[in-house]
């Protein structure tokens, strides 16, 4: 099948890649670009294990064609930590035991990263609703809520400090 | 043992047993650096996709591969005919039956594997699957297990016609798999005849699926030059897979390397060997290139190991005061088209004999009949501990039914019948030997914590107002840690497990076990055990599992057996090292080892301050300064054959409010007390509990795999299959008591499946209790809004006042 040249910014780096028009973004990220943090947990767009950040919104990359990402700004879990160390959401999940098998974690983290920009000081209810596009089979969500609360507090402190 | 502030500080630094140590696994997972099967790439790797049956039951007339093979990028299309010369078109199952790898003459469940396509990538493979033309002749499908043994029932397994000696018993019908029974039928029948009160209830523990977020997959690579097969597999028992693959392929076990890398959840789904693994391995052997197979969610839900599907008839006999005299259970077990139920080979109904529960029941008898239907194989999965889910469900439901008949309080009847602390070890009427327990303390703690009396009072008031409020109580006893090799084996291999610990010259350590984590934090908790035993900080102890070339042989992780068996092996291996370390310390300090005492991380000469050697000193000496005749190095192995199972227990209480007009059930409160003996890492235990309770909520309140009369599976994707999000999932309250296992080296019991096992009947108990004043004794799961509304409607509760 004929391939199309696609360019985007991925974790702050310019990327050029040749893809078939039918290629899902998740496969481009995982298979062509070897960013295997994002995962696939379903084929009906429910689980959110493939969640990445695209132009400032959380998207399920199993439900986007790579060609649609042309010209966009993408961020995956691999781009969360910076030279300063782990991002607050990563630290939160580790401190509050917000992961077990780790399979939903990259999607959860990318969603939490964006969610806390949408709502920096969320209630428990708002966190639960805000992360409802992401399924987890291990944690029962309770510690994920605590992880996001931890990150929210940490980010707030940083803002104020 | 000194308890000086200084030694307490050293102990804290170890991050050993009992502390909520943060997980060593997390850094890689939170940075997307885990290594799951589908992350792995190999040079020349191809992808496999499976052609599946649209019918539940049909003859295969022909398979035409021509068009698929003509598609550029397609390397092979394999069918049963290609596997026959290798005798691999069928494979053995853990239940002693066989399962078709690729369907030969007919298909026996919908979406069964018919052919496998190997192509350059998964996109081309998916295209090619569409081009494989299979002609079928449909046959009548059998989906109702109650009709399996009818005289005119369609025969599902033509390969077994006339073979009436099954793997577990005589077969009574072509669709009969086994009869298994336990207990004293005569004394039980007599107790029922003599009883003042008897109750009977039918209940269906419906078919559900463990649905791990990562599906099953495999990357097989056969090296033609070395004659070695390496396969990365989503397997909860990689060593067992290696043995089976070796036996089936004829490749020596030393040239089969199975690696379970990071696994995105197992939940029992990843115990069996699936046709996808076998076909990927065969394709790699045939093509001489790595072949990857990763299934979709729909394939996972439809064709891999389901859970439950037991039709149970429970009976209790008691006196008028509510003292239980006898339990009788009769089960019809729907196993699908092949018996691939993952059990120790002598236990076709798993550990169902634990169904006398937490109660001192003098007489009991249970019988289970397994039957074939046109459905996918499975049965044991999804935190069931080998059918303990079903066992706990039936006994807890029956105790409620009895309480209701006698007009007794549901907590009171339990307190009255509990095995008492002084009765342990307690031999049950069905042959379990409960190791330890204090059920009264546990239940009373829960009742106090939730103010049970006040809840019942509120319920009275609500009932008077026509509102539906239910209180569910379950007090369960688990059986985990399979198991003693005299009775427990997997395909002939005793169910021991193992640990190998190696202390390096500079005092850090590498340890490997025969189990395999799928998220339960073994890399953290095993290190904690070794840390406490040897005085090496857990940070400096590297734990590995899952690579059969390097880890000692073990039976894997399922049935909550890691702590009971693997952790026991770890402690024993560490103690072997410590015993050698004591001799080295004595040599270095020039005293007898009787003169030494252990203080956290060092041996001290009794009564001589300052005379001491740390484990670090000893490790170095083990490589250069040893007592005469002692072997250099500091390492040990232990293969632990457990003397008994461990029997953790719990007391769970749930309060629900039901909207009688919509049937929507809201969980107001769920309080879970678990006692798993010594707690290695409370943080990790709590995480296991949260996950298990959430699964229980899903199973009881919405999950279901059902079939229409033609055998079409229904609800087999996330469009319908209920996985709760953070919004639906209730807030969990957890608690504990500590009743150690007397036979376990650490006093620790397994726990991970307890929350699933215990919570499900708790939800049913709460929902049914909401209707108990209307003489409802049982309602089948799932308690979805529609089904609960049906009950409201049947009772006329949804009519406006």
From TrEMBL, chain A:
Signal sequence, start to end? none
Do the record's keywords include Iron-sulfur?
Answer: yes
Q: Does the keyword Transmembrane apply?
A: no
The membrane spanning regions, by residue number, are none
Task: Report domain 2Fe-2S ferredoxin-type positions.
Answer: 4-80
Superkingdom per UniProt: Bacteria
Q: Which UniProt keywords apply?
A: 2Fe-2S, Iron, Iron-sulfur, Metal-binding, Oxidoreductase
Which molecular function GO terms apply here? 2 iron, 2 sulfur cluster binding; metal ion binding; oxidoreductase activity
User: What is the name of this protein?
Assistant: Carbon monoxide dehydrogenase small subunit
Q: What is the organism field in this record? A: Cocleimonas flava
From TrEMBL, chain B:
Q: Which GO terms describe its molecular function?
A: anaerobic carbon-monoxide dehydrogenase activity; carbon-monoxide oxygenase activity; copper ion binding; iron ion binding; molybdenum ion binding
Please give one Pfam family short name. Answer: Ald_Xan_dh_C
Q: Per the record's keyword annotation, is Oxidoreductase included, yes or no?
A: yes
- Where is the stretch described as Disordered? 1-20
Which EC class, in a word?
Answer: oxidoreductase
Which stretches make up the Aldehyde oxidase/xanthine dehydrogenase a/b hammerhead domain?
31-140
Q: Which reaction does it catalyse?
A: CO + a quinone + H2O = a quinol + CO2
Cofactors named for this entry: Cu(+); Mo-molybdopterin cytosine dinucleotide
Instruction: Name the keywords, alphabetized.
Output: Copper, Metal-binding, Molybdenum, Oxidoreductase
> Gene3D superfamilies under this entry?
Aldehyde oxidase/xanthine dehydrogenase, a/b hammerhead, Aldehyde oxidase/xanthine dehydrogenase, molybdopterin binding domain
Instruction: Write down the SMART domains for this protein, in alphabetical order.
Output: Ald_Xan_dh_C (SM01008)
Its quaternary organisation is: Dimer of heterotrimers. Each heterotrimer consists of a large, a medium and a small subunit.
Q: What is this protein called?
A: Carbon monoxide dehydrogenase large chain
Which lineage ranks, top first, belong to the organism behind this chain? Bacteria, Pseudomonadati, Pseudomonadota, Gammaproteobacteria, Thiotrichales
């Amino acid at each position: 099948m004929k391939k199309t040249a696609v360019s985007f910014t991925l974790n702050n780096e310019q990327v050029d890649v040749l893809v078939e028009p039918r290629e899902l973004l998740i496969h481009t990220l995982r298979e062509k670009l070897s960013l295997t943090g994002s995962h696939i947990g379903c084929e009906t767009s429910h689980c959110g294990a493939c969640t990445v950040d695209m132009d400032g919104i959380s998207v399920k990359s199993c439900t986007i064609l790579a060609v649609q990402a042309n010209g966009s700004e993408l961020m995956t879990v691999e781009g969360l930590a910076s030279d300063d160390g782990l991002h607050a959401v990563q630290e939160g999940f580790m401190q509050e035991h917000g992961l077990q098998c780790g399979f939903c974690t990259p999607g959860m983290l990318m969603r939490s990263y964006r969610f806390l920009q949408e709502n920096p000081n969320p209630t428990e209810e708002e966190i639960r609703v805000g992360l409802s596009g992401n399924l987890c089979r291990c944690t029962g969500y309770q510690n994920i809520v605590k992880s996001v609360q931890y990150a929210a507090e940490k980010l707030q402190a940083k803002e104020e400090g | 043992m000194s308890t000086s502030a200084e030694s307490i500080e050293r102990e804290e630094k170890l991050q050993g047993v009992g502390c909520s140590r943060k997980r060593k696994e997390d850094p890689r997972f939170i940075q997307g650096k885990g290594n799951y099967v589908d992350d792995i790439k190999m040079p020349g790797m191809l992808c496999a996709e499976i052609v599946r049956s649209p019918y539940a039951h049909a003859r295969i007339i022909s398979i035409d591969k021509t068009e698929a093979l003509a598609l550029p990028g397609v390397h092979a299309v394999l069918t049963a005919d290609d596997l026959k010369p290798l005798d691999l078109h069928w494979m053995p199952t853990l239940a002693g039956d066989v399962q078709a790898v690729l369907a030969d003459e007919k298909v026996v469940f919908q979406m069964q594997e018919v052919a496998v396509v190997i192509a350059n990538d998964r996109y081309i493979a998916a295209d090619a699957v569409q081009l494989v033309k299979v002609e079928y002749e449909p046959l009548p499908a059998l989906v109702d297990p109650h009709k399996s043994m009818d005289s005119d029932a369609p025969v599902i397994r033509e390969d077994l016609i006339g073979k009436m000696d099954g793997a577990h018993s005589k077969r009574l019908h072509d669709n009969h798999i086994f009869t298994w029974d336990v207990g004293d039928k005569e004394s039980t029948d007599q107790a029922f005849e003599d009883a003042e009160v008897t109750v009977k209830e039918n209940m269906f523990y419906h078919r559900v699926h463990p649905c791990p977020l990562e599906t099953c997959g495999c990357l097989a690579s056969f090296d033609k030059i070395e004659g070695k097969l390496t396969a990365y597999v989503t397997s909860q028992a990689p060593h067992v897979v290696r043995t089976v693959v070796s036996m089936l392929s004829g490749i020596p076990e030393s040239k089969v390397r199975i690696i379970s890398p990071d696994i995105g959840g197992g939940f029992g789904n990843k115990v069996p060997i699936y046709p996808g693994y076998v076909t990927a391995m065969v394709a790699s052997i045939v093509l001489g290139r790595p072949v990857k197979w990763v299934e979709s969610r729909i394939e996972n839900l439809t064709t891999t190991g389901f859970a439950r599907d037991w039709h149970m008839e429970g009976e209790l006999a008691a006196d008028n005061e509510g003292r239980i005299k006898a339990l009788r259970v009769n089960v019809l077990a729907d196993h699908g088209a092949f018996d691939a139920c993952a059990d120790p080979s002598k236990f076709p109904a798993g550990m169902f004999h634990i169904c006398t529960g937490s109660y001192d029941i003098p007489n009991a008898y249970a019988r289970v009949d397994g039957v074939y239907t046109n459905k996918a194989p499975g049965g044991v999965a999804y935190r069931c501990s080998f059918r303990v889910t079903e066992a706990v469900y039936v006994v807890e439901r029956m105790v409620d039914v009895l309480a209701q008949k006698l007009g007794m309080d549901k907590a009171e009847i339990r307190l009255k019948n509990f095995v008492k602390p002084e009765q342990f070890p307690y031999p049950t009427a069905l042959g379990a030997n409960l190791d330890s327990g204090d059920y009264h303390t546990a239940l009373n703690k829960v009742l106090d914590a939730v103010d049970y009396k006040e809840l019942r009072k509120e319920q009275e008031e609500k009932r008077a107002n026509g509102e539906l409020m239910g209180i569910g109580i379950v007090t369960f006893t688990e059986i985990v840690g399979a198991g003693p090799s005299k009775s427990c084996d997997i395909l002939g291999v005793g169910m021991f497990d193992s640990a190998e610990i190696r202390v390096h010259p500079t005092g850090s350590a590498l340890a490997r076990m025969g189990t395999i984590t799928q998220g339960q934090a073994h890399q953290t908790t095993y290190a904690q055990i070794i840390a406490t035993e040897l005085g090496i900080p857990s940070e400096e102890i590297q734990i590995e599992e899952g690579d059969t070339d390097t880890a000692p042989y073990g039976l894997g992780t399922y049935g909550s057996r890691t702590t009971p068996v693997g952790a026991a092996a770890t402690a024993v291996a560490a103690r072997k090292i410590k015993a050698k370390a004591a001799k080295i310390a004595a040599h270095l300090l020039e005293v007898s080892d009787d003169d030494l005492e252990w203080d956290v991380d060092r041996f001290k000469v009794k009564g001589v301050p300052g005379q001491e050697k740390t484990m670090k000193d000893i490790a170095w000496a083990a490589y250069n300064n040893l007592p005469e005749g002692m072997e250099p190095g500091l390492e040990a192995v232990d293969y632990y054959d457990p003397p008994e199972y461990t029997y953790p227990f719990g007391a769970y209480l749930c309060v629900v409010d039901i909207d009688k007009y919509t049937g929507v059930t809201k969980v107001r409160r769920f309080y879970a007390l678990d006692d798993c003996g010594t707690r290695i890492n409370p943080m990790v235990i709590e995480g296991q509990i949260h996950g298990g309770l959430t699964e229980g909520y899903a199973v009881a309140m919405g999950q279901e795999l059902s079939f229409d009369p033609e055998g079409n599976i229904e609800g087999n994707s996330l469009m319908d299959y209920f996985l709760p999000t953070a919004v639906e999932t209730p807030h969990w309250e957890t608690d504990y008591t500590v009743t150690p296992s007397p036979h376990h080296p650490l006093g620790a019991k397994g726990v991970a499946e307890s929350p699933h096992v215990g919570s499900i009947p708790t939800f049913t108990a709460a929902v049914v209790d909401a209707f108990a004043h209307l003489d409802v004794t049982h309602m089948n799961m799932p308690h979805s809004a529609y089904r609960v509304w049906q009950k409201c409607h049947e009772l006329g509760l949804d009519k406006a006042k």
